[in-house]
């Protein structure tokens, strides 16, 4: 909230307009600049977030491949809208079956980026080296995965979805749609936005609304499940169960780890 952001400096929030592309490489380089700025003021950067893909890039470096090309990206996004993800995913299966096997037709952003890389480099994505070692850089990362057990987490996720809807989430999406939300494939496929756009395309009956709420909650739960799976593969993270410690004890454990360099 604005009040929370006034208490401590926040970064990389509201940094792009709806029609501006943004990807994991851009995130990585912007974050590096911010880290250096914070450290120069004798402060410690704290990264808080849920996207395992972006956190992985921060730790291990951005994915290999050529920089994005607006012209190529625009063409692929238009094809995604006109032809659908199934057609582009089939194209990826033909051009790079190894990489395609690690994704699905639901991974629209990855399909577009991989086809973009192939078009720009004339190489398969699977041929590029995969980062798997911590970056040799100026930062010493300490990482924690702070979580609720899934049963409690899912109920909190559903309550959050309901609160977002009460706070006029549908009206927000309707306004963004008028500003071009559908033209930004990444944003339009984001959890909540994708389900809300589908609802706005429907007759908007009570049954349609209930289907939207159900799909919104389901997509949010599935994302949380994927986070557990992703971060379980990351050895640098220490897992802390919120139900086993009160907030003060959690802070003590994190500070101890930070100071001792676990």
Explain how this protein is built.
Strands 1-2 form a two-stranded parallel ribbon. It is built from 13 helices and two strands, in the order αααααααβαααααβα. It has helices at 2-7, 24-40, 52-60, 70-83, 85-95, 97-100, 108-121, 150-166, 169-178, 185-188, 193-201, 206-232, 247-260; strands at 143-147, 237-241. The longest helix is centred in the C-terminal third of the chain and has 27 residues, at 206-232. With 262 residues, it is mainly alpha-helical. Helix 2 packs across helix 3 (52-60), helix 5 (85-95) crosses helix 7 (108-121) and helix 9 (169-178) packs across helix 11 (193-201). It folds into two domains: 2-141, Orthogonal Bundle (Histone, subunit A), CATH 1.10.20; 145-231, Orthogonal Bundle (Helix Hairpins). The two termini are 32 Å apart. Helices cover 60% and strands 4% of the residues.
Could you give a short description of this structure?
With 262 residues, the chain is mainly α. Helices cover 60% and strands 4% of the residues.
What layout of secondary structure does this protein have?
Blueprint: H1 2-7, H2 24-40, H3 52-60, H4 70-83, H5 85-95, H6 97-100, H7 108-121, E1 143-147, H8 150-166, H9 169-178, H10 185-188, H11 193-201, H12 206-232, E2 237-241, H13 247-260
Parallel strand pairs: 1-2
Descriptors:
single chain; 262 residues; Histone, subunit A; Helix Hairpins; 2 domains; two-stranded parallel sheet; 13 helices; 2 strands; 60% helix
């Amino acid at each position: 909230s604005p009040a929370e952001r006034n208490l401590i400096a926040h970064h990389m929030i509201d940094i792009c307009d709806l029609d501006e592309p943004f990807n994991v490489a851009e995130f990585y380089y912007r974050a590096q600049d911010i880290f250096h700025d914070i450290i120069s003021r004798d402060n410690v950067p704290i990264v808080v977030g849920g996207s395992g893909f972006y956190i992985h890039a921060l730790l291990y470096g951005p994915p290999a491949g050529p920089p994005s090309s607006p012209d190529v990206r625009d063409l692929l996004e238009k094809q995604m809208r006109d032809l659908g993800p199934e057609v582009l995913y089939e194209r990826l299966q033909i051009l790079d079956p190894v990489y395609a096997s690690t994704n699905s037709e639901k991974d629209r952003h990855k399909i577009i980026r991989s086809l973009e890389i192939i078009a720009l480099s004339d190489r398969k994505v699977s041929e590029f080296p995969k980062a798997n070692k911590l970056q040799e850089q100026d930062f010493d990362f300490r990482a924690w995965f702070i979580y609720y057990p899934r049963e409690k987490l899912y109920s909190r996720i559903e309550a959050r979805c309901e609160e977002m809807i009460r706070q006029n989430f549908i009206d927000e999406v309707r306004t963004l749609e008028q500003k071009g939300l559908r033209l930004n494939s990444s944003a339009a496929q984001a959890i909540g936005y994708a389900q809300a756009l589908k609802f706005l395309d429907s007759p908007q009956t009570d049954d349609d609304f209930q289907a939207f709420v159900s799909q919104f909650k389901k997509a949010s739960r599935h994302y949380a499940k994927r986070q557990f799976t992703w971060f379980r593969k990351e050895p640098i993270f220490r897992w802390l169960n919120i139900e086993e410690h009160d907030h003060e004890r959690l802070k003590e454990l994190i500070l101890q780890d930070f100071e001792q360099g676990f």
